[in-house]
Design brief:
The complex is a heterodimer of chains A (678) and B (118). Chain A has 678 residues and is α+β, with helices and mostly antiparallel strands. Chain A has 24 helices and 22 strands. In chain A, a hairpin with a 2-residue loop joins strand 12 and strand 13. Chain B has one domain: 3-Layer(aba) Sandwich (Rossmann fold), CATH 3.40.50. The chains are: A alpha+beta (678), B alpha/beta (118). The interface between A and B is medium-sized, with 31 and 29 residues.
Chain lengths: 678, 118
C-alpha cells in the first residue's frame, strides 16, 4: 500500500520489510518452541526482542495497528516471563495469530482483525492479572509517617511540590529524575511517591511531593534546578516548620482513614472523631467478660426456676454468689469500655504550638511555649469540650499575661516569657494547667471593672478576698463585655470557659501570683459516662452528688450550728463553714419530715468549703450519667440524671456549680464569718 | 561539530536517527549492539549516546553500566519503547541522563540532543 508508506524512501521501505520478516520468523520459531518445550528463558528474550523491534519500527512510520498489536503481544510475553500468564493452548494460539496478522501487515495488506487480536490479548492478561492484583496503600499516611521519623523539631523544611506535564511518557521516570534531583540538593525527609515506590513501578500520577532539608536555603536556585528536568510543568516551594509538619503528621496518622487530601484545614477535625482505634487485647478481654456475663445470666435464670420449685437456703446462697460474680464482671466490662474511650491529650495539644507561634508573631510578645504530659489519657468526648476553653486560656495567657519584652526587662524578668500547657492524672481526675510567668491577674483592676459593670456595688467590693475576686472574672456579668480591652482583667469569655468545663463535671480554679504569673487549672473527670457519687435523700427524694468535690460527711449535732444573721454556719474544727439546706433549693412535693438527725455533706470548691444539709445519706454508687434533654436541661443546680439500682430515676446535682453560686450570692456574709478561719 | 552515537539493533531505526541528525548538522556514528557501542564510543568519543534497550549480545542497560563504569563522563539518552518504564528507572539510576520514547519523534529527539549537546 503505497499511501501507507508516504514519506519513506524506497531504501527505508526495503529495510523495514526485511527486518519485519526476520523478526516475525524468529518470533514464530520461538512461539513454537515455547509451546513444545515449555518456558525457556532464552526463547522468551528472543521473542521479546522481536516484538519490541517490530513495535518500534512500525510505530516510527505511523503503522499504529501493527505497533499496537506488537505491543500487546510483547505484554503477553512479559507476563509469561514473569509467570503471571500460563502458556496455555489458547494463549499460544492468539500469539501465533498475531504473528500471522503482523506478517500480512508488513507485506502491505489490510488486516481487519488486528484490533480484535489486541483486545483478545488484553482480556487474557486482565484475567490473569486479576488474581495477582494487590492494592496500594494510603500514601499520604506513609509520607507523614516517614516524616515523623526523620524530623527534628527545630528544623526548617522545604515542602517541594512538583506538577508534571500532562500526558508525558513514563511519569514514573520523570518522578524519579525529580527525586534524584532533590536528593542532590539536600536530604529528602519524606516524599510521595518515595523513590522506592517509583522504582517498584507504582502508578505515580502527575504530582510529586517532597520534604527536603536543603543544603542551601536558596529556594529560587532549588526551583530552577528542578525545572531543568524534562516533563516538569510547575514547581512550588514552601518553607515549613518541622513542628507544624509533625503536628499534622501525627494528626493524619491518628485520624488514619481520612482520605489524603480532603481533611479539614481549619482544625475542626479529629478531636471528636467518630472512630477510635482500640487495642485488640482490650477487645479480647471484653469478649471474655461478655461470655462470663452470659454464663452468669444463665445461672441466674436456672436459679430462678429452682427457686420457683423449691425455695431453699442453698439456692439463695448460690444466687448471692452468682450475683457477686456478675457484678464483678459487669464492673470490669465497664472499665474496659471506659479504657477504650481514652485518647492521649496530645491529639488536642498538638494543634496549639502553631497557634502560639502565630500569636507570637502577630503581637510584639516573646515567649516559649511548652507542653507537658501530652500522653495523659482522657475520655475522647472530653477532648472536644475542652478544646475551646484551652484555646481561650492560652490566648489569654499571651494577650493579658505575657508582657512585651521591654516591660519584662524593666521588671527584672527574663526577656522571653514562658507559657506552659501541662496535663497530669491525679487520682480520679485529670488536671490540665495553663500557666504563664506574665503579669498575673491585677485583682484591683478586676474589682474596678466588676463595679463598673454593676456585677457588684462599691460596698461589696471592699469585702472581697482574692478568691472572690477571681471568682468574679468567671461570672457572666463580668465577662459579657462588648469591648476587648487592654485592662489586665482576664475576664473576656471566662464565663463561657467555666460553663463548658462544668458541663462535663469539671472544675476550674486559678492560682494568681500578681506580677509573677497566673495558672488556670482545669480539673476534669476521667470519664463522662459514669461518675462516682454519693446518694443522698432530701424530702423523700434521692439525689446524686458527684464525689469529686465532696470532702466529708457528718451528722449535724445541734450545738455545732450557729446563726449568723440570715445564714447558718457550722463550726468544724477551726473552720466556720456556711450551711445550706438542699431542701430549700430542691423543694419536694412529698413533704416528708423524717424527724431524726440531719446530715451535712462538706464540699470544697475554689479552695472554699460549703456544707449541704440533707435528710439522709444512702451510700456511694457508680452512677451512669444520662443527659437531660430540653426543657429539663436547665434546672438550677442539676447537671444530668441517672437510673438508680432500684430502677428509679434520680437527678445528679451540679454540686460545685451550685456551691459556687451559693457562695457568690452570699459571699459577703460568709466572708465576714469565716475570715478568721482561713 | 557535535557527534552522536546511535546504538540500535534495528537498522531501520539507526537509519532514521542518522537521517534526522545529519540533516540538523550533527555527526552520527552507529553501533548495532552493546559490545560494538563500547568500542565505537572509545574510538569516536561522541558527545551524546542514544542507546536502545532491547538488543542482542549485550542489552542497553548492561551496556550503559559498562559504559558509565569506563567513562563516567559519557552522556547517555536511553531510547525506549512504552512499557519499559522499569528498565528506564534502572537506567536513570545507573546514570543515564534522560530517555526518549519510540515511536520515533523527530522533534523530541532534536530537543533532547540540543538539551545535552547544544
Amino acid at each position: 500500500m503505497a499511501d501507507r508508506m508516504d514519506g519513506l524512501t524506497a531504501e527505508e521501505i526495503a529495510v523495514f520489510a526485511a527486518e519485519a520478516e526476520e523478526q516475525l520468523n524468529a518470533a514464530e520459531d520461538m512461539l513454537l518452541q515455547l509451546e513444545s518445550d515449555g518456558v525457556d528463558r532464552q526463547a522468551i528474550e528472543r521473542l521479546l526482542r522481536a516484538m519490541h523491534t517490530l513495535k518500534g519500527n512500525a510505530a516510527s512510520i505511523g503503522w499504529e495497528d501493527m505497533a499496537r498489536l506488537a505491543h500487546a503481544a510483547e505484554d503477553a510475553v512479559i507476563a509469561v516471563r514473569d509467570a503471571r500468564l500460563q502458556t496455555t493452548a489458547s494463549v499460544m494460539d492468539v500469539l501465533l495469530r498475531s504473528v500471522d496478522a503482523m506478517r500480512a501487515m508488513a507485506e502491505g495488506e489490510q488486516v481487519a482483525d488486528a484490533a480484535q487480536l489486541v483486545d483478545e490479548i488484553a482480556r487474557t492478561l486482565q484475567t490473569a492479572d486479576a488474581a495477582g492484583e494487590e492494592q496500594g496503600g494510603g500514601s499520604g499516611e506513609a509520607v507523614l509517617h516517614q516524616l515523623t521519623e526523620a524530623v527534628g523539631a527545630e528544623d526548617e523544611i522545604l515542602q517541594v511540590e512538583v506538577d508534571l506535564t500532562d500526558d508525558i511518557d513514563m511519569p514514573a521516570v520523570r518522578a524519579l529524575q525529580v527525586l534524584m534531583c532533590c536528593e542532590s540538593l539536600g536530604e529528602i525527609l519524606a516524599s510521595d511517591p518515595t523513590q522506592k515506590e517509583v522504582e517498584e513501578g507504582r502508578d505515580v500520577g502527575g504530582k510529586i511531593l517532597c520534604y527536603l532539608r536543603a543544603n542551601s536555603s536558596a529556594e529560587d536556585e532549588i526551583k530552577r534546578e528542578i525545572r531543568t528536568n524534562s516533563g516538569v510543568a510547575r514547581v512550588s516551594i514552601q518553607v515549613q516548620s518541622a513542628q507544624r509538619l509533625l503536628a499534622e503528621s501525627a494528626e493524619a496518622l491518628h485520624t488514619g482513614q481520612d482520605d489524603d487530601g480532603s481533611s479539614d484545614k481549619d482544625g475542626k477535625d479529629s478531636a471528636g472523631s467518630r472512630h477510635i482505634r482500640v487495642d485488640v487485647t482490650i477487645l479480647d478481654r471484653l469478649m471474655n467478660l461478655a461470655g462470663e456475663m452470659v454464663i452468669n445470666r444463665n445461672r441466674l435464670s436456672n436459679l430462678a426456676d429452682d427457686l420457683a420449685r423449691n425455695s431453699f437456703a442453698d439456692q439463695v446462697e448460690q444466687l448471692q454468689q452468682t450475683v457477686e460474680q456478675l457484678s464483678r464482671v459487669t464492673g470490669e466490662v465497664q472499665q474496659n469500655i471506659m479504657q477504650m474511650r481514652l485518647v492521649p491529650l496530645d491529639r488536642l495539644f498538638r494543634r496549639y504550638p502553631r497557634m502560639m507561634r502565630d500569636l507570637q508573631q502577630s503581637q510584639d510578645k516573646e515567649f516559649d511555649f511548652e507542653i507537658r504530659g501530652g500522653q495523659t489519657e482522657i475520655d475522647r468526648s472530653l477532648l472536644e469540650v475542652i478544646s475551646d476553653p484551652l484555646t481561650h486560656l492560652l490566648r489569654n495567657a499571651v494577650d493579658h499575661g505575657i508582657e512585651p519584652p521591654e516591660e519584662r526587662l524593666s521588671r527584672g524578668k527574663k526577656r522571653r516569657g514562658s507559657v506552659v500547657l501541662s496535663a497530669s492524672r491525679r487520682n480520679n481526675h485529670i488536671c490540665i494547667e495553663v500557666s504563664d510567668d506574665g503579669r498575673g491577674i491585677d485583682t484591683d483592676a478586676v474589682v474596678r471593672r466588676a463595679v463598673q459593670k454593676d456585677v457588684i456595688d462599691a460596698e461589696q467590693a471592699k469585702q472581697l478576698n482574692e478568691q472572690d475576686i477571681i471568682g468574679l472574672m468567671f461570672s457572666s456579668g463580668f465577662s459579657t463585655t462588648d469591648e476587648v480591652t487592654e485592662i489586665s482583667g482576664r475576664g473576656v469569655g471566662l464565663d463561657v470557659v467555666r460553663r463548658e468545663v462544668e458541663s462535663v463535671g469539671g472544675d476550674i480554679s486559678v492560682d494568681n501570683d500578681r506580677g509573677q504569673g497566673a495558672c488556670f487549672r482545669l480539673s476534669l473527670p476521667l470519664t463522662v459516662t459514669s461518675v462516682k457519687s454519693l446518694l443522698v435523700e432530701i424530702r423523700g427524694q434521692t439525689y446524686v452528688l458527684p464525689l469529686g468535690s465532696v470532702r466529708e460527711t457528718l451528722v449535724r449535732e445541734p450545738g455545732q450550728v450557729q446563726k449568723a444573721g440570715e445564714s447558718r454556719v457550722l463550726q468544724l474544727r477551726s473552720e466556720l463553714i456556711r450551711l445550706f439546706e438542699l431542701a430549700d433549693i430542691f423543694p419536694s412535693v412529698r413533704e416528708v419530715d423524717r424527724g431524726g438527725p440531719n446530715y451535712v455533706v462538706i464540699l470544697e470548691v475554689d479552695q472554699r468549703k460549703i456544707g449541704f444539709v440533707v435528710d439522709d445519706l444512702i451510700g456511694e454508687e457508680e452512677c451512669v450519667i444520662k443527659p437531660l434533654l430540653s426543657p429539663l436541661d436547665d434546672i438550677r443546680g442539676v447537671s444530668s440524671a441517672t437510673i438508680l439500682p432500684d430502677g428509679d430515676v434520680a437527678l445528679i446535682l451540679d454540686a460545685s456549680g451550685l456551691a459556687k453560686e451559693l457562695l457568690q450570692d452570699d459571699g459577703r456574709v460568709a466572708d465576714e464569718q469565716s475570715a478568721g478561719g482561713r | 561539530m557535535s557527534k552522536v552515537l546511535v546504538v540500535d539493533d534495528a537498522r531501520f531505526m539507526r537509519l532514521r536517527y542518522r537521517k534526522l541528525l545529519t540533516s540538523e548538522g550533527y555527526d552520527v556514528v552507529e553501533a548495532e549492539n552493546g559490545k560494538e557501542a563500547l568500542r565505537v564510543y572509545e574510538e569516536e568519543q561522541p558527545d551524546l549516546v542514544f542507546l536502545d534497550i532491547t538488543m542482542p549480545v549485550m542489552d542497553g542497560l548492561e551496556t550503559l553500566r559498562e559504559l558509565k563504569q569506563r567513562h563516567d563522563e559519557a552522556r547517555v539518552v536511553m531510547s525506549s519503547a512504552l512499557g519499559q518504564e522499569r528498565i528506564i528507572i534502572s537506567a536513570i539510576k545507573a546514570g543515564a541522563e534522560d530517555f526518549v520514547v519510540k515511536p520515533f519523534e523527530p522533534n523530541k529527539i532534536l530537543e533532547t540532543v540540543q538539551k545535552y549537546v547544544g
